[in-house]
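Case study 2.
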Amino acid sequence: MKLSLAWIFDHINADWKKQDINQIFSKFNTTTAEIEGFHKLKYDLQNFFIGKIVEQSNGKTNFFVPELKKEIEIAQRKDETDGMFAHIPNPILMIKKLDGVFYWANLVDFGMEKDGLLPAFDVKEQDMAGNWRNKFEAEDIILEIDNKSITHRPDMWGHAGFAREIAMMMDLPFKEQCEFLKDIPVQCFDGKSRTTQTNPITIENNSQEGCKRFTGLYFKSIENKPSNIFIASRLLKIGQPPINGIIDLTNYIAQELAQPVHAYDAEKITDKKVIIRPAKNGEKIELLDGNSIELTNQDMVIANNKNAMCLAGVRGGISNSISHTTTSIFFESATFDAGAVRRSALRHKTRTDSSARFEKTLDPNQTIQATQRFLKLLDECEIKAEHATEIISVGQQVSENVIELSHDFLEKRSGISFKESDVTNPLAKLGFTVSVKNTPASILYDIKIPTYRGSKDIKIKEDILEEVVRCYGLNKIPLELPIFIRKPYDIKPQTRLRTIKDYLSSGAKMSEQQNYVFFDEDFLAEINFSESNTVKVVNPVSQNNFRL
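Prediction:
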């Protein structure tokens, strides 16, 4: 996974350019997770220009560049001949100059592995003469993260979670989340919502075990703009291709808050009903990547009254996707069962950035925050929209758990003499609420776990111990081999029993075998054998081997 240090420091009240990246790298690797490496990035934008198409004929395009004050002749874009920009009057596009020849700018020019042309951009007329470069974030430090080292930390699959950790370890002020959200009312329902004066769409959750919380916001109208050039520059740096104004913001939120979100064309939602349900055996859906798959009742879908619109937690469908004609959307932010998402992604061979995050067990409460972040970004990107006066949320809010432990517990388990501040300060910086009670016997702590850490990571006292010790510094613990005291004991009873078993099994012409054996489902299907009284593995590696 790639992360942008400039983006991380959006959430820290400090200048990222003044930080010692080597110190961050070292502290992070010894405290939190593994940063495999980092590299400094700086795009040279001097040979890149933006302009508008004037005329096209005979496979050539006359392209006016305000900065150069002249028209450039360039080969016609393939996507333009396909009508990609037919809906955008005078699309603003980017070109590059290489050895005196002009070409269309593409993804590879900005470090992307996959080739492809850049989309149209949303740039103000007064910025076209060169000031657009100030809006394009061209300098950064890109961190390469080992995904395996953060599988237990769902909050750290986005830039904001990394910012919290870096702010703690570097003793920098972490910005309040409210700065990044637009606050509007939320209406909560248990299993099925109702329409309101400004929201005609209902949400019905028929799979509450598979979907803990589903949040939606109806937009009566939304401006379907090209990609914001700043948002596009951020996505490019971490390997995410920009597409258009609305879709870029959904991808931006997933990368920032570790909360995948999705936008549907509201006009294509049949009967204005959004239904979370198990798929039907044999039901088909065409996904956004162009693949058509056949679903089973083990999959979960987001559907309207007629058909599935999305393979829940994995990938959206084409039938209700955003297109250049979209003027009204339904914005979705939800949390799905980690095991169900993983099995669907494996079954259909379509693992995505979205499924990778849902597989980590996300915080159900952050669905509201992701929706409010979308509204804030719309304002910042000057995308005009008319939306419902309230966010609709189906499913219960998760409460913060409290873990009680003593100072003695922390010291005896770790072998470290902690000061009270060694416990309270780092936990508070990580978002925990710590209450301290002094007793004659020991200091007692009541620690309230934030829900973004309580969904998977922090469950028991030992988890708090791990937090305190890693923040204190594992390198401060002296290296010492543990002492194991071994005393001799009589093993005759065990060897006698083993000998008896050997004689009995040999006499019965049997051999002893101790292991776990899985049914081969394909083989059982061939011989038409069914056995219902079996033990099933909750999260199997293979759908062919899931029963003992």
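Residues 492-507 form the longest helix (16 residues).
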